[in-house]
């Protein structure tokens, strides 16, 4: 490949384009000047870009069309950092869920459930006993209460004690499009993350291993 790259000249009329998600792993011999030396970073789509992506992929599944734009804005706001493949996957998952429930249309509930699967992981078959449910509930409420009283935390979207992925429960916050955070924001976010651990210590009287992920 290196020999072929060195063989190009101004008369060949050939432009070589390469793509990777792991540029840092490429050998320096490949990316030095004169070879693949021009780097173009393609960032994930912004809010408006995701709205257009959702409008595109929602048009390919069976929904009530008058809600297409409304759904697109709602879903785009819930999925910062997502790319076109993620959006396509969400719409496909929602269509599968609608089929499983014998629904005539894909609705917002199906789409939000598909986002939960993408962001939080699949529901687990494990069942919590009553003691575990109480501890997980207290833990998740601790996160929610602390974040409610702090001005620099993200808006709370939902609380769940349904096991998903590696978590027995979750607080889901409305994601932000911000790229920079102040010290006050970071401190408030850290306090909210540790709120579950503090709630266990205050109410249960001891801290469970469920708080280890927060640290």
Describe the protein in words.
This is AFG3-like protein 2 (Trinotate prediction). Residues 1-42 form the ATPase AAA-type core domain. Residues 128-215 form the Peptidase M41 domain. GO terms for molecular function: ATP binding; ATP hydrolysis activity; ATP-dependent peptidase activity; metal ion binding; metalloendopeptidase activity. The protein has 215 residues and is mainly alpha-helical. The protein has three domains: 1-30, no CATH class; 47-120, Helicase, Ruva Protein, domain 3; 130-204, Methane Monooxygenase Hydroxylase, Chain G, domain 1 (Up-down Bundle). 48% of the residues lie in helices and 4% in strands. It is built from eight helices and two strands. It has helices spanning 2-6, 28-31, 47-58, 68-78, 84-100, 108-120, 130-149, 183-204; strands at 156-160, 170-173. It has a two-stranded antiparallel ribbon with strand order 1-2. It is extended, with a radius of gyration of 23 Å. The chain starts with a helix and ends in an 11-residue tail after the last helix. The model has no long low-confidence stretch (mean pLDDT 84).
